[in-house]
């Protein structure tokens, strides 16, 4: 009887003070970030890695040759050079990276991921798989929309100086947005010299090379205008 009386109650009106969509989305992103931090801390606690150390390893793993200069690490992770150097020195003591001087210029110090370092940040047991599993709950259309949305958010944060380097198609010199009428594969990647679809847009591509400021702006406008027009 109690259940029946609940069913008979009139529907409650939607609260008028509902938060604006950008605020709701920001709250959702914050929840994701908290979940990831908690997972990272648990995992890093086991591996004995601090957050910055883990970021350095993950950055090196994303490079084609698993190496980078200390100055580039500092720039990409938006930290000061001494901070990056300290994290690298700690990782070297743990035998997760090794440092060596460039053959071409002895003043340049390169950092390379060791096999042990690659295992310590392997995605098989880490966050990327956890997220991939969660995002597989989206339909393929939702996944493409999410990817494009992330691209726009990341680009904005990059323009605000919060993210230093994002190796995304939209700022790559090889990217030619909306070159074809074919809806499934409207863009062109000069690197592979082939059409690519929205589903193949990259957020972190090893072959990425930065476009000039004017080319990146032109590419973005073309990509974004067509996106708005298509709706
Ligand atoms: S090289 Fe990579 S980032 Fe550049 S357009 Fe091709 S797929 Fe995109």
Distance between the termini: 49 Å
Uncertain runs: none
Overall pLDDT score: 81
Q: What compounds sit in this structure?
A: iron/sulfur cluster
Shape: globular
Main sheet: strand order: 1-3-2
Q: What is the number of domains?
A: 2
Share of residues in strands: 5-15%
What is the helix/strand order? HHHEHHEEHHHEEEH
Question: How many helix segments?
Answer: 9
- The chain-level structural class is mainly alpha
List the helices and strands and how they pair.
Layout: H1 2-8, H2 21-47, H3 51-62, E1 67-69, H4 70-76, H5 81-93, E2 97-101, E3 109-113, H6 115-120, H7 127-135, H8 140-159, E4 175-176, E5 187-189, E6 194-196, H9 213-230
Antiparallel strand pairs: 1-3, 2-3, 4-5, 5-6
Helix pairs in contact: 4-5
Bound molecules: iron/sulfur cluster.
Iron/sulfur cluster (SF4) binds at residues 169, 172, 174-175, 189, 191, 202, 205, 207-208.
Give an overview of the whole structure.
- With 231 residues, the chain is mainly alpha-helical.
- It folds into 2 domains: 45-125, Winged helix-like DNA-binding domain superfamily/Winged helix DNA-binding domain (Arc Repressor Mutant, subunit A, Orthogonal Bundle), CATH 1.10.10; 138-230, no CATH class.
- Helices cover 52% and strands 9% of the residues.
- The chain has 9 helices and 6 strands; from the N terminus they run αααβααββαααβββα.
- A 3-stranded antiparallel sheet has the order 1-3-2.
- A hairpin with a 7-residue loop joins β2 (97-101) and β3 (109-113).
- The longest helix is centred in the first third of the chain and has 27 residues, at 21-47.
- The relative contact order is 0.08.
- The mean pLDDT is 81.
- Bound molecules: iron/sulfur cluster.
- Residues 169, 172, 174-175, 189, 191, 202, 205, 207-208 line the site of iron/sulfur cluster (SF4).
């Amino acid at each position: 009887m109690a259940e029946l009386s609940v069913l008979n109650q009139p529907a409650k009106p939607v609260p008028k003070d509902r938060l604006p969509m950008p605020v709701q989305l920001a709250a959702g992103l914050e929840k994701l970030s908290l979940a990831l931090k908690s997972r990272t801390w648990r995992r890093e606690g086991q591996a004995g890695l601090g957050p910055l150390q883990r970021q350095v390893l993950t950055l090196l793993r994303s490079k084609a040759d698993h190496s980078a200069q200390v100055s580039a690490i500092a720039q990409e992770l938006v930290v000061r050079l001494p901070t990056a150097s300290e994290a690298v020195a700690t990782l070297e003591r743990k035998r997760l990276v090794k440092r060596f001087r460039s053959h071409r210029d002895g003043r340049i110090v390169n950092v390379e991921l060791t096999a042990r370092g690659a295992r310590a940040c392997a995605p098989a047991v880490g966050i990327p798989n956890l997220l991939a599993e969660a995002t597989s709950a989206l339909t393929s259309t939702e996944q493409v929309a999410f990817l494009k949305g992330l691209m726009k958010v990341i680009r904005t944060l990059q323009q605000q100086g919060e993210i230093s380097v994002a190796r995304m198609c939209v700022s790559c010199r090889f990217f030619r947005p909306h070159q074809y009428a074919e809806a499934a594969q409207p863009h062109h990647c000069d690197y592979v010299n082939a059409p690519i679809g929205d589903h193949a847009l990259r957020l972190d591509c090893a072959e990425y090379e930065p476009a000039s400021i004017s080319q990146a702006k032109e590419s973005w406008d073309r990509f974004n205008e067509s996106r708005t027009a298509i709706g």
